[in-house]
Amino acid sequence: MNEFAGVSSPSTDRIRVLHVDDAPDLSELVAAFLERTDDRLTVETATNVGEALDRLAEEAFDCVVSDYEMPERTGIDLLETIRTTRPDLPFILYTGRGSEEVASEAITAGATDYLQKERGTDHYAVLANRIVNVVERERARASIDEIQHLFSELVDRTDDVLWLFSGDWREAVFVTTSYEDVYGQSRAALREDPSAFLDAVHPEDRARVERAMRGLSNGRPVDIEYRVNEAEGYERYVWVKGEPITDADGRVTHVGGSTRDITRRRTREAELARAERQYEAVFEDPNVLVGLLTPDGTVLDVNRTAMEYVDADREAVLGAPFRETPWWGDDDSLRDDVQRWVDRAASGEYVPFEAEIVGSGGNRIVSGVFRPVTDDDGEVTEIIVSDRDITDRRTRERVLREMYEITADPALPFEERIRKLLALGRAQLGVRYGTLSRIRGEEYRFEVVDAADDSIREGDVVPVSATNCEIAAATEETLVLEDVARDAPEETDRAGFAEWGISCYLGTPVFVDDGVYGTFCFYDTEARSEPFSEWEVTLVDLMSRWVSSELQRRRASERLQRQNERLGRFTSIVSHDLRNPLSVAMGSVELAAQTEDLSHLAPARRALRRMNGLIDDLLVLARSGDTIDDLSAVELDSVVERSWANVPTADATLRVETERRIRADEARLRQLFENLLRNAVEHGSTGHRTRSGDAVEHGSRGEQTEAESGSDDRPVTVSVGDLTDGFYVADDGPGIPPENRERVFENGYSTDRDGTGYGLAIVGEIADAHGWAVRVTESDSGGARFEVTGVDIVDVVDAE
């Protein structure tokens, strides 16, 4: 609390004056003249310093007028005492002692004014005027101080940064304390370097801020947002509004304004923008039809995707009852369903639905839900209806169901099931041709065909190099070409494109026994404007996998059947063919033992020799029919010559007329040639009257004696040469009668008394295991000619 209790309010017009003078009469005179001169003045008097101090401590005065010379203490003493507690109280030294020394002392002590007493009364008006001036000046200063105090209180309570700089930005005149929190920089740094605040601005924003500063200095207001506060990673955003301050001549003397922290606002704006984008993304999802309805079903909004399904303007749909919009066509029953779905959703229920609606290019199937939107009280305020077009999904489900029904139908032959799959695939892909083809060597055979015309027929054979299937088979991957000329210009030299015009292709390899069997493919003479979809490629892959699996199963079944057939034949052989010679041998030995006549052992020896031959042939036959998994490129002439060396040829002659390489199992191919060559040597001589199906593996039979083979034999000549898709073995012997040619490959068939009848059966089994065909005909010289066809011919490059 102040030592002097009373301080007059600067807002009043009255001026209370305390006049201190040790001459009471003079004091009263002065008071009278002052109050008469200005009616705002009220003058109180005191006769000494002590009394004046007491009055000031108890009452409020606007001005003190004091004489200099008074008993005990002077007016200067009074002034110095007042200034210790009231530095701003107006004090006029009014004295009759006028000197520069007194005036200087008064000013030094803090006197507001100094006036010397004069004779007469005119100077009282001067004194009154001096009092009024100093009081009004002090009141004005106090008012300004109060305003400044209130302003300081105001700015200290605001989060905004208020600032004032010189027009050239060289002086920071005023900056509020909130600057330090917002910019992360002290005001002291700003006072030392007014441009230091640029260091707190994001580097990417500084150029814009500097342009704004130059604009302010040139008299242009600014309104700008930028990022500040390096300590916070420049994640704080501010909004700055600045104004230039000019003098009377229009020159910019200062620039000032405010800076507001808008980080929260920007965050909210970003969140709102993100929410709006999310809403937009959901509402305008190109895969979802979305509508916003009132609880009674009136359309408030629909997305663009939904409008693509109908030939109508959006404005015509908004405000209409949802049940009457064009999506539902003219189906009154469906419209009634829609209204029921709306009513259920309006009651707060989530209503899933599936319906066939009117769509572009025909009716479409959609699946969706009516969702109620509620307020805080649980009242339904809106309904969101959303649905997806599931036409393609339903189509795929139907196609997969049809595919299953086709493949699982046991009443349909395998080829018919393939044909139906091709028809189903063609319908889905929209192409003219679908084929299952077999690739063997350089040949491409159309095994099953479904086509829009008869330009391709089952059984047709073309070079594999003419087709795109060669690529699929070589890479063992699905080949997709929507436009051959565009997507694979390097393949346009193939006959498939150049001659047949195949312009689009989708095919995948078919596998059997871990090797490529052929291809399952679809194609057309028209290039596709749209790519094959992932679903279309997957469908063809699924179909081809079933074909591969079924072919593998059929081959395994055929193997099992052949094995069972061989087992049956072996059982028959053991029970019949071996039983007779065994009975002969046993009987002969028993007879020789009873009679002690060793001549009875000759039939036993012949019987045992026959049994030995039968057993050897059966061992070869058991192996010959097994499926061959490991094929390699072999030189045909080399295999023939090695086989000839393993056969008892006597004086026979071999003529090899081939340099071909084929793909085969070399060991079994050698068995095939050994049996064919032995058959030619043993039955091709002129000493034999008949031909049989008899031959044996080398080492299983002893060489014939001269008596057994006939002394008038003429050496036979055996030739081996090329066929278009295989090879032949021919001799110049008596040949085989036409009526016996089909039977020579039967198990056990022989016209030779000592023959087993299994040599040519082994040939047939080995050929079948390779997938070849073998037949017997007449040679050019009238002898026998065995032709093996369906062989995979290999050129030198492939062999290497």
UniProtKB/TrEMBL annotation:
<dbReference type="InterPro" id="IPR004358">
    <property type="entry name" value="Sig_transdc_His_kin-like_C"/>
</dbReference>
<dbReference type="InterPro" id="IPR003661">
    <property type="entry name" value="HisK_dim/P_dom"/>
</dbReference>
<feature type="compositionally biased region" description="Basic and acidic residues">
    <location>
        <begin position="691"/>
        <end position="704"/>
    </location>
</feature>
<keyword id="KW-0597">Phosphoprotein</keyword>
<dbReference type="InterPro" id="IPR029016">
    <property type="entry name" value="GAF-like_dom_sf"/>
</dbReference>
<feature type="domain" description="Response regulatory">
    <location>
        <begin position="16"/>
        <end position="132"/>
    </location>
</feature>
<dbReference type="InterPro" id="IPR011006">
    <property type="entry name" value="CheY-like_superfamily"/>
</dbReference>
<feature type="domain" description="Histidine kinase">
    <location>
        <begin position="573"/>
        <end position="789"/>
    </location>
</feature>
<dbReference type="InterPro" id="IPR036097">
    <property type="entry name" value="HisK_dim/P_sf"/>
</dbReference>
<dbReference type="InterPro" id="IPR005467">
    <property type="entry name" value="His_kinase_dom"/>
</dbReference>
<dbReference type="Pfam" id="PF00512">
    <property type="entry name" value="HisKA"/>
</dbReference>
<keyword id="KW-0808">Transferase</keyword>
<dbReference type="InterPro" id="IPR013656">
    <property type="entry name" value="PAS_4"/>
</dbReference>
<feature type="domain" description="PAC">
    <location>
        <begin position="351"/>
        <end position="402"/>
    </location>
</feature>
<protein>
    <recommendedName>
        <fullName>histidine kinase</fullName>
        <ecNumber>2.7.13.3</ecNumber>
    </recommendedName>
</protein>
<feature type="domain" description="PAC">
    <location>
        <begin position="222"/>
        <end position="274"/>
    </location>
</feature>
<keyword id="KW-0418">Kinase</keyword>
<dbReference type="Pfam" id="PF08448">
    <property type="entry name" value="PAS_4"/>
</dbReference>
<feature type="domain" description="PAS">
    <location>
        <begin position="147"/>
        <end position="220"/>
    </location>
</feature>
<dbReference type="InterPro" id="IPR000014">
    <property type="entry name" value="PAS"/>
</dbReference>
<dbReference type="Pfam" id="PF08447">
    <property type="entry name" value="PAS_3"/>
</dbReference>
<dbReference type="InterPro" id="IPR003594">
    <property type="entry name" value="HATPase_dom"/>
</dbReference>
<dbReference type="Pfam" id="PF02518">
    <property type="entry name" value="HATPase_c"/>
</dbReference>
<dbReference type="InterPro" id="IPR050736">
    <property type="entry name" value="Sensor_HK_Regulatory"/>
</dbReference>
<keyword id="KW-0902">Two-component regulatory system</keyword>
<dbReference type="InterPro" id="IPR003018">
    <property type="entry name" value="GAF"/>
</dbReference>
<feature type="region of interest" description="Disordered">
    <location>
        <begin position="683"/>
        <end position="717"/>
    </location>
</feature>
<dbReference type="Pfam" id="PF01590">
    <property type="entry name" value="GAF"/>
</dbReference>
<dbReference type="InterPro" id="IPR001789">
    <property type="entry name" value="Sig_transdc_resp-reg_receiver"/>
</dbReference>
<dbReference type="InterPro" id="IPR000700">
    <property type="entry name" value="PAS-assoc_C"/>
</dbReference>
<dbReference type="InterPro" id="IPR013655">
    <property type="entry name" value="PAS_fold_3"/>
</dbReference>
<dbReference type="Pfam" id="PF00072">
    <property type="entry name" value="Response_reg"/>
</dbReference>
<feature type="modified residue" description="4-aspartylphosphate">
    <location>
        <position position="67"/>
    </location>
</feature>
<dbReference type="InterPro" id="IPR035965">
    <property type="entry name" value="PAS-like_dom_sf"/>
</dbReference>
<dbReference type="InterPro" id="IPR001610">
    <property type="entry name" value="PAC"/>
</dbReference>
<dbReference type="InterPro" id="IPR036890">
    <property type="entry name" value="HATPase_C_sf"/>
</dbReference>
